[in-house]
Design brief:
GO terms for molecular function: CoA-transferase activity. With 417 residues, the protein is an alpha/beta fold. Helices cover 36% and strands 14% of the residues. The protein contains 17 helices and 13 strands.
């Protein structure tokens, strides 16, 4: 491994008031890039996802439950501080932390932090240069602004479920959600991009008069935004796209096929690849049939073409077809379960599984998924495990607010920490 250069966000301080996934995913991205991310949590319970299991990380104390896998997925590289923000003393602590922060991330309901004096206007008054990112279901101004927003609900409302799954008239037909919290994760990534742009814009200003930004992120906006080519299929044609299972609306053949021992993906992206596919299948005449010679023609005649390809692909095993197609440069791949994913030579070579020390793990370590971004060959992943609840409360309050042991103990006695 090469020696890591200075992290790109070293020196940036982030106060993360968010919980569940979209906000924490954003915070983890910033931590991976080197920002100091202080995660503020409720005393005793903490982030909701600490309770979202099983599975749980095996604990050193068999009678105690370890951290949830869900929580571990989104909180690497942070420092956990427990503060009761419903109490004036807790609000004061958070305001003091925000006064020296570059970024605040929060995902409370619209207006939910105003009563605590922790909304953008209140914190801007103590730190005009603050970048304040609000993540909600429907944004700060919307007919639905008062509603809570959850990924599953937003996948339904934002159209992606109408595009995912088998057609209604086939076995198992009907809308299906994506297998991970797709909208939450994309919202976290968009939020991180917005924060980076806001930091760049702020830091180009005169140091004495820098002003921050209020970033308004809505899960619904993001879900509509990532409809991508399917949104344009509708906006361009006026026709509502329908579910095609594992097929593609704009490219054929670009879908799953059954083989002699399972399934595989064939992803033909141009006419040359289609010609080579037909050669491997010993059906070269299909490439010269005017119904199939171009992608546009294949899209129009998919119902005639796909059965012809499927009949041949069913005659040999997945591995046999993959070897033959790779040899001629036709994109194809297996449909892996997660055990096979993490055993894949590419995943191993790219070190996409990360192992970090964890103080409560039975093995002393925790397995995580590395950040896929690399700078000059160096992976941008924080090197500290997701924190235990309140693990850094004392240290942060001493370092950043100058509190002493007696003051911290007094706050703990009052239930503030």
């Amino acid at each position: 491994m090469q020696q890591s250069p200075p992290a790109p966000l070293a020196g940036v301080k982030v106060l993360d008031l968010s919980r569940v996934l979209a906000g924490p995913w954003c915070g983890q991205m910033l931590a991976d890039m080197g920002a100091e991310v202080i995660k503020v949590e409720r005393p005793d319970k903490g982030d909701d996802t600490r309770q979202w299991g099983p599975p749980w990380l095996a604990s050193q104390q068999p009678e105690q439950r370890g951290e949830s896998a869900y929580y571990l997925s989104a909180n690497r590289g942070k420092r956990s501080v427990t503060v009761d923000i419903s109490r004036p003393e807790g609000q004061k602590l958070v305001r003091e932390l925000a006064a020296t922060s570059d970024v605040v991330i929060e995902n409370f309901k619209v207006g939910g932090l105003k009563k605590y004096g922790l909304d953008y206007a209140s914190l801007k008054a103590v730190n005009p240069a603050l970048i304040y990112c609000s993540i909600t279901g429907f944004g700060q101004q919307s007919p639905y602004a008062h509603r809570a927003g959850y990924d599953f609900m937003i996948q339904a409302m934002g159209g992606i479920m109408s595009l995912t799954g088998q057609p209604d008239d086939t076995p198992g037909g009907g809308p299906v959600k994506i297998g991970v919290a797709f909208t939450d994760i994309f919202t976290g990534l968009y939020a991180a991009n917005g924060i980076l742009a806001a930091l760049y814009a702020r830091d180009k200003q005169d140091a004495a008069s820098r002003e921050g930004t209020h970033i308004d992120m809505a899960l619904m906006d993001v879900q509509v935004g990532v409809l991508a080519n399917q949104a344009l299929n509708y906006l361009t044609s006026g026709k509502v796209p329908q579910r095609l299972g594992n097929a593609h609306p704009n490219i054929v053949p670009y879908q799953a096929f059954t083989t002699a021992d399972g399934h595989m993906i064939v992803a033909v992206g141009n006419d040359g690849q289609f010609q080579r596919l037909c050669q491997v299948l010993e059906r070269s005449e299909l490439a010269h049939d005017e119904r199939f010679a171009t992608n546009g023609a294949r899209v129009s005649h998919r119902e005639q073409l796909i059965p012809e390809l499927q009949a041949v692909l069913a005659t040999r095993t997945t591995d046999e077809w993959l070897a033959a197609l790779e040899a001629v440069g036709v994109p194809a791949g297996p449909i892996n379960t997660l055990d096979r994913v993490f055993d894949d030579p590419h995943v191993k070579a790219r070190e996409l599984k990360q192992q970090l020390k964890h103080p409560q793990s039975a093995s002393g370590k925790v397995d995580l998924v590395n950040n896929p971004i690399r700078f000059n060959g160096i992976q941008m992943s924080a090197q500290s495990a997701p924190p235990t609840l309140g693990e850094h409360t004392d240290a942060v309050l001493k370092e950043q607010l100058g509190l002493d042991n007696a003051q911290i103990d007094g706050l703990k006695a009052l239930g503030i920490l």
